[in-house]
């Protein structure tokens, strides 16, 4: 939903968040852009909070019961104002993407996880109890281009297209593993 709202607000992906548009296209809203700077700032702050927090299995992502109210209460009033008339469509977009991911991911996620493990082995990362515990979080997002971004130290945002392409996936991930696990 966050990426949908970014596109809806007309915020340039090159300026905030992963620098790639969503797939499929989201029509930018019409109307005044006088609050564009505020929305860009609020969106960037919200996105950072979503992608840099601990997303380990022990601390699952908590989805607020009422996102609009949550945005207003937590300092994102322009985003809440933008989201209000488009909430149904944004929710539908998010649910459709989640369903698509659920349906297709079983065909490629196990292979990508094996490839990450192989990259870690090649990097010399030990799985011994004395090794410092670090975790890589991979967040799949429906972007037009097969790309990946490292955010928050060990969180990787990867486009759906990239996760489906083994060679490209390894090409993007190898340098990220080097950054996350320096020798």
Automatic annotation (TrEMBL):
<protein>
    <submittedName>
        <fullName>Uncharacterized protein</fullName>
    </submittedName>
</protein>
